[in-house]
Write a structure and sequence with these properties.
- The chain is mainly beta and about 280 residues long.
- It has 3 domains: about 80 residues, Sandwich (Immunoglobulin-like), CATH 2.60.40.10; about 80 residues, Immunoglobulin-like; about 80 residues, Sandwich (Immunoglobulin-like), CATH 2.60.40.10.
- About 0% of the residues lie in helices and about 40% in strands.
- It contains no helices and 25 strands.
- The strands form 6 sheets. Strands 3, 4, 7, 8 and 9 form a 5-stranded antiparallel beta sheet that branches. Strands 11-17-16-13-14 form a 5-stranded mixed beta sheet, with no helix packed on it. The protein has a 4-stranded antiparallel beta sheet with strand order 1-2-6-5, with no helix packed on it.
- Strand 7 and strand 8 form a beta hairpin.
- The radius of gyration is 40 Å and the shape is rod-shaped.
- The N and C termini lie far apart (about 150 Å).
- It comes from Macaca fascicularis (Crab-eating macaque).
- GO terms for molecular function: protein tyrosine kinase binding.
- Keywords: Glycoprotein, Immunoglobulin domain, Signal.
- Belongs to the immunoglobulin superfamily. CEA family.
- This is Ig-like domain-containing protein.
Length: about 280
């Protein structure tokens, strides 16, 4: 009986697709009067529904291979005069792409900021990425960078991951909202020196801004209900009817939208009054 050569493992598929392909590993060369043995991760072959031996033990078939399979396989040949073992073989399991993740997700952006989105999908081989904005292709990169964005950059951003080996595509969409930060408001007045019990004063919260809520504070309190106070023009204008000497304020206005809130500097009124009926002291 001759001494055996060093065996080696041949495979019918060294790049199986996850949970789909079976792989047949064959111990080469075919030699008469030889016993074939298999080792999995340096252990003798375990009993498993995923492993099947041929009748002569020369071929080991592996089923349902998961993506994280780092198992290494070795075969051994024995005859009465020698024992030889092959080099180890591992499988390169193809998988994915999984549904990609876009980060950061659904963050509101202020106009003038830079938009920097990153896409990642688990995949072997590494996925190829494409970006679409409102359905229109933008570029084939893993990161999408748009400097100095405007409200017009709001919309639907889709990342597509493609696996060239499995031929599969997966997509994820995120909504990007770009808002304009509100300016600091200020109060204009039609009369900052009103005369008591005579003049009405109109205070206007400037500037005019779309999709904005206007608020008022008097003496640091939110506006109380009073027949002498009238709000108009979507709360942007506060009218004081028949001003009294106690109406000096201060008055503040605020503007807010879903992303920001700003408050004006306080304004006081110089109410002109008197003279009241004079008091002579001491009295008679």
């Amino acid at each position: 009986t001759a001494e055996l050569p060093k065996p080696y493992i041949s495979s019918n598929n060294s790049n199986p697709v996850e949970d789909k392909d079976a792989v047949a590993l064959t111990c080469e060369p075919a030699t008469q009067d030889t016993t074939y043995l298999w080792w999995v991760n340096n252990q003798s072959l375990p009993v498993s529904p995923r492993l099947e031996l041929s009748s002569d033990n020369r071929t080991l078939t592996v089923f349902n291979i998961p993506r994280n399979d780092t198992t290494f396989y070795e075969c051994e040949t024995q005859n009465p005069v020698s024992v030889r073992r092959s080099d180890p073989v591992t499988l390169n399991v193809l998988y994915g792409p999984d549904a990609p993740t876009i980060s950061p997700l659904n963050t509101p952006y202020r106009a003038g900021e830079n938009l920097n989105l990153s896409c990642h999908a688990a995949s072997n081989p590494t996925a190829q990425y494409s970006w679409f904005v409102n359905g229109t292709f933008q570029q084939s990169t893993q990161e999408l960078f748009i400097p100095n964005i405007t409200v017009n950059n709001s919309g639907s951003y889709m990342c597509q991951a493609h696996n060239s080996a499995t031929g599969l595509n997966r997509t994820t969409v995120t909504a990007i909202t770009v808002y304009v930060e509100l300016p600091k408001p200020y109060i204009s007045s039609n009369n900052s020196n009103p005369i008591e019990d005579k003049d009405a004063v109109t205070l206007t919260c400037e500037p005019v801004a779309e999709n904005t809520t206007y608020l008022w504070w008097v003496n640091n309190q939110s506006l109380s209900v009073s027949p002498r106070l009238q709000l108009s023009n979507g709360n942007r204008i506060l009218t004081l009817l028949s001003v009294t000497r106690n109406d000096t304020g201060p008055y503040e206005c605020g503007i807010q939208n879903s992303e920001s809130a700003k408050r004006s500097d306080p304004v006081t009124l110089n109410v002109t009054y008197g003279p009241d009926t004079p008091i002579i002291s001491p009295p008679d």
